[in-house]
Task: structure prediction
Amino acid sequence: MASRQAMSSLLGGPGVFLLFLALGCTAVAGTQLCTTESVDEATICSLVQSISKEEVRIVFSGNHYPCQLTFAQYACIPRSWLQVWNKDFLTLLYPCLMASGPPSALDPAYSILLFSKIDLPVLETALKKFSQQSSSQTVLSDQWAAVLFNGLWMRLGPAFQARETQATRSQLLSWLQPFLLHPVAFDCLTAQNTSCQTFHNLISALNDIYSSLEVEKQRKIFEGMESFLLQEDSGSHCQDEAVPGLNSSSWLANYLGFFLERATIEELKRLVDEPKLQILARDPAALHLVSQLHLMPDLARFYTTLLTSPPSLTSSA
Result:
């Protein structure tokens, strides 16, 4: 698109390198798709071709092709102009993003900016409609799924925690499911320093929709969970003998839930060392969980070994 090309020329300016450093972004292969840096709207929108309120009205009226505007232009629309935002906007916008190519170095920041401006009821309705369509039609790219989820979770994460019932949390996550099927989206949870308690609540809510997911989708979500829990191989996250809640013997049920069914033996050992696994496997909550699962034969045999082998002398309580 012409406007994207214009933006690309602006990104070559001498001051842009400093801007990227300020945003925590790079303009080379491996662009950070997740960021928690505060967004300076005036700075990043100074790079974007401005549009008039009338142009925005025409696009939102449905009488104009939505891809006439770039993602950056949408993000930089004044908040007050977004009152006429169509509740199908995410469904209409996503094909434009795919057609525009891979995300730019600034798109994670534009994602945060855009979703911060949209009223929660409008955003939740848009997500619901998008998830209904994407289940059968839309195939998300890993990169755009991460960029969009990063902005969405920055906006919706507090709303997720504020929901008082498990059912309403599960409902919100069912709408986010198209993004969570991409393990890279879980990297955004890590980048945003998502707490272990929030992650536990997220897994509990995902458990509620587990049976509605195809096996391949269950596996993809497990891969994302594993990525969050390993924190780039720095040792298993959300386990700490000195922290209440993180030293629970119910860890397998709390942090893997039904998705344990999609783990391999090697993955389970990466998450928890074998001596400790012997303890966790015997926990009543874990035993109840496993009784509801159909473990792969090799994992089932391994789990049986954990239950029947004498406890290791090197295990910690």
